[in-house]
Amino acid sequence: MQASVTVISTGGTISCRPERDGSLMPAASSRLIAAAAERASVRLSHREYASVFGTALGLGELFEIVSLACRALEQPQMAGVVITAGTGIIEEGAYLSELLNRSGKPIVWTGAQHAARDPDFDGPRNLGGAIRVAAAREARTEHCGAAALVCFNEEVLPARDAVKVHKSSVAAFSAGEGGALARADEDRVVWLRRSLAGRQFEVDRLESNVDLIPLVAGSDDRFFRASLEAGARGIVVQGFPGVGMICPGVSSAIARALDRGVVVVLSSRSPHGRMLAKYGGEIGGATLVRAGVLLGGNLAPAKLRIGLAVLLSVSQERDRLSSLAGELWP
Questions:
Q1: CA atoms within 13 A of residue 176's CA, in its CB half-sphere
Q2: 190 CB contacts (<8 Å, ≥6 apart)?
Q3: End-to-end CA, the chain
Q4: Which among 125, 150, 160, 298 is placed 20 to 30 Å from 95, CA to CA?
Q5: What is the pLDDT of residues 208-265, one digit of tens each?
Q6: Are strands 263-268 and 294-295 parallel, antiparallel or unpaired?
Q7: pTM
């Protein structure tokens, strides 16, 4: 039986067409998918979820999209699912897929940096590569270690590590210190390494009341107060560059959040390396961990927010959350 791949399109630059004033707006992806189907060596089906910019998708929409993909993967003949989206949301959507895809088959995210009107439109190449990856037997979790992938500019990256590092280059995404898992060459997918095995969860909803608060020189508690007043269940703090440090103006706010039972996770602006409970004093990571703050390992702050939203949907019990967090971002 010929393998099948489903493409779920959501919009983004890969679907954009020019308006009368020259600005770009997402449009239907049917022509792009039809052209890809002619070139593909697998049976291709298509579902148009939306035609919006990636940043218009909230946690609720991302959960629906990933749930659609997971249901499609329940079909025996389905080898994998490709999701096309605006590049601004791929990091978060792909990592949510990594946490929720329990099928063993791949969910592959892709998009484009240039629109169809541009002579260097990268959409067809990225989409074609993503389809080849989704159909590849080696893309299954048992082989590559990842439940979700990002395919962009011929590179295949684990969703856990994929970060958009360039605003406009076609080489937009990087997997940082770990590097690419594979290359989506024109004739076949060449695998280079295996990803760190992840953990997947079955949830019927997401705890969407999770905030991300970045810190800069002189930050105070105003954003923490707003978050707590809005009933936040979790807060990811993007601390200063390094292994774990905040500033004096927010230490009392973090203490208040912990007293209210809010889960607080500390991350860093530094893109590489992992968090450490190293420094003491009022603002050091070691002190914060003793107070109950969780460290975010080597995961990017926006992905920590996605992970915390999933974990809070699994359990509200403090020790259980701490144990699961240690598995997801060691």
A1: 17
A2: 182, 183
A3: 41
A4: 125
A5: 999 999 999 999 999 999 999 999 999 999 999 999 999 999 999 999 999 999 999 9
A6: parallel
A7: 0.96
